Amino acid sequence: MSNGATDALLQVRGLKKHFPVHRGLLQRQTGWIKAVDGVSFALAQGKILGLVGESGCGKTTTGRMILRALDPTEGEILFRQQDGQVVDMAQLGRRQVVQARRQMQMIFQDPYSSLNPRMPVRDLIAEPLRSYGWSARDSHARVGELMERVGLDPRYARRYPHAFSGGQRQRIGIARALALSPSLIVADEPVSALDVSVQAQILNLLRQLQTDLDLTLLFIAHDLSVVRYLCDEVAVMYQGRIVEQAATEALFTQPQHPYTAMLLEAAPAPDPHASWMEEDEDASEAGEPTPTDDQGCSFAPRCRYKSDLCSQQMPALEGESHLAACHHKDELELHGV
């Protein structure tokens, strides 16, 4: 794995999104919120990359910038189109972005609010097709095909979203995302609003679609068990930066960054005899994220292994097949799952 992989479908380099902070009666700018601050990764064709981290770490902002739903402050978003041409999504004009979006789509988190309640399912799924010039006859035929592919009965195409369960609504959202046969799908926590039993069905559907259609997925989530089940690789974000990236099993069994180890420790163990009182005291005392300046490691205030170097110098994301941004990664023996 390499951030400079030339065969990658998507390469993100130094991606940043800084939001201005305004205060006072005159709303003068007093600083910046660095939601994403130098994210780089590569995603190979046909693979699923999980992007995980705490709420507010910049996962969703990263996904929206890749699709240009948000304009990046800085950085490159290199996307290899189906004709082989590589374009930088960060530099495209509005019309060019519209054309590029035919090949990259998004599955949203909430299957209830992401569907227009005033439109029947047939029109919801056909909406992207009609936007790109498909005829009504062709789009209706395509809708039936898509509904069957995601496990819905095409006879229900005239029904409205309220007639469907949460899992069925998410299948509608998936069908809509597949309508234009995209190469890349950004899935923003697509199962977090669903019951656990339904989550498994949607995850199996995504895996089947990825295999059948050679899809490439950026899967944004905070549930580590879901990520371990579905993803080929995992990138861990903390305060706008990726602090570790590796193949899924390597990251879960041999983490190299203390933050990743803390996330794994915090995940509930599937053991009916385990007690929540047995949690690691050091992990529980770590507390909430603490804003820091740009000189040192952003995780240093919470890290039990920190040294003076950690507060003075920002560690680089380095490695061969297993990347980690930690000055002491070669010295630590961190526990995985």
What topology emerges from the helices and strands here?
Elements: E1 8-23, E2 28-44, E3 48-52, H1 59-66, E4 74-80, E5 86-88, H2 94-100, E6 104-107, H3 121-131, H4 136-149, H5 166-178, E7 184-188, H6 196-213, E8 216-221, H7 224-230, E9 233-238, E10 241-247, H8 248-253, H9 258-266, H10 281-284, H11 308-312, E11 323-324
Parallel strand pairs: 3-8, 3-9, 6-7, 7-8
Antiparallel strand pairs: 1-2, 1-4, 4-5, 9-10, 10-11
Helix pairs in contact: 3-4, 3-5, 4-5, 5-6
The coarse overall form would be: globular
Q: How many β strands by DSSP?
A: 11
Widest sheet, order of strands: 6-7-8-3-9-10-11
- Helix-strand makeup class: alpha/beta
- Our count of domains comes out at 2
Radius of gyration: 21 Å
Q: Name the CATH homologous superfamily of the largest domain.
A: P-loop containing nucleotide triphosphate hydrolases
End-to-end CA span: 22 Å
Q: Supply the CATH architecture of the largest domain.
A: 3-Layer(aba) Sandwich
Helix and strand succession?
EEEHEEHEHHHEHEHEEHHHHE
